[in-house]
Amino acid sequence: MKKLHPFRIIYSLLIVLGLFLSSCGATDEEYSDAETYTEEPDTQEAGGESSPVSAPGEVVYDFGFTPEQNGFNFQNYGDDIQVVNLTAGELRRMFGDQVCSRLDGDVCTLTPPAEQWMEQINGSMSGGHCEGMAVLSLMMYTNQVSASDFGGSVASELDINDENLQREIAYWWATQTVAPTYTSVIKGTPMEILEIVQQMQVNGETYSIGIYKEDGSGGHAITPFGVQDKGDGLFAILVYDNNYPGQTRELFVDSRDNTWLYEASINPQVESELYTGNADTQTLDLTPTSARVNFQECPFCDGSGVSSTGGGKLATLDQKQNQIFLDGEGHLLITDDNGNRLGYVNGKIVNEIPNASYTAYRMEASGNAPEPIYWLPAELNVTISIDGSTLTEESLTDLVMIGAGFSIGVEGIYLEPGQVDTAYFYPAEQTIAYETEADESPFIVVGVENPDAEADYYFEVQGADIKGGGIITVYLDTKAGDLQINAEKLNNEGSFDFYLTRITDELEEEFAAEEILLKEGAVVYVNYAEWTDANPEGMYFGVDLDGDDVIDDEYVVDDSK
Questions:
Q1: CA separation (Å) from 375 to 61, 118, 215, 237?
Q2: Comparing 317 with 356, which gets the higher pLDDT?
């Protein structure tokens, strides 16, 4: 007969005896009335780490936070309700005025890379807001954020329908995606995490806890506020889980073998599942609140932005990196020119690329944790596989790279089960090539902040026909003022719509053109730099029909908007 792990035996007994208090919302008063024992407590060790000296039933640490009063009265939410997430106001607050192409009074028009970044982050929140709720409830308890600014004296009195509260939750959620917040995350063994939580009042720091499945997916954020000795070397970190409003939940840590266990679910109406880990899995972490409270480092700013307000050069990245976002189902595998990989291999994340990393979201509400944010050295050329082999149905998918002063990507891919497409990114040249064997009509998007020019630009090559597969390449030549659409490796001719936004210190202008012919083997040059809205002649398009770098045809396209 298979021998049961001691942790499992204890866990089963707790359920049978009705002591798994998290399932019935036990209060702190119930914990304080818990029976204590007069026998001497054990000081067992696991992997050289001592367990807290306490007696079974004793609450060995209590921060004073209670989920009933200090947690929100509504549960974690994704896109199941209509909310407002980040706006330009939150980006200015987080990064300073450098996120603005222009300021008109207090109205900020975001730079194109900033707008793209905000779109990606807001889209990622569709899976849940647990990180924001875990952090904000704790900051309201410690008076770092005033609940009275949102219509109540404590978090439990606040209304989810308040747009300002929605935006505040989104703000603190978004801090997990940038430095110094994500670079300050504390990884450790379960016993090390337990010890840090127990010292919160001593070291003057507070934390949110991140929990993950062993394959790196399913991230969720909860708020720790106490530790209780359960006896026989088993301890419970008492937490507020925003999927369970008003309830005290327990994350178990077993000091004898340095393991942890937590029962979590999408929401109280959905069957729960176990999250587990040990000293080697690194699936339990802490994020210090202090890392979130100052300006965050801007991953999409080039360091200039709006200079007249004094906010232009705040908190840009010292070591510039590019972020990779996948919006949709499926997985990514990123490969550099030396064959090093970052992303999913056989269902688990690997990272072989020097100076690259990834950030798993803590957000679970829908049960579908999104792809992590991948961080790459700024000048690194990469090949990215968009893998739909695990899909059971078609998924609308976007892939975007965002770096200092630019964004490039492909949006609107209808990824079928089993389909594997490829994108090639050349960030130094602001170039993307997209390859597919399927019939696709994606949008190729490019945004650029031009500190040395009079305007910032955003481009869309909309619905570019790729019939029968092939490769389409888009290259932004800022020196020549051309956007190049290269169809040399398409299998059939098609057409595309073209859209441009031009932002200056004085105004924002738009241009649109429809059904531009995209001949197989041709390169289309869009001379955007010479155009302004005041130009009655339209925009110049040039076509190299055979790829010999000589313009064979040139014509003017009128604005169709």
A1: 37, 17, 19, 32
A2: 356
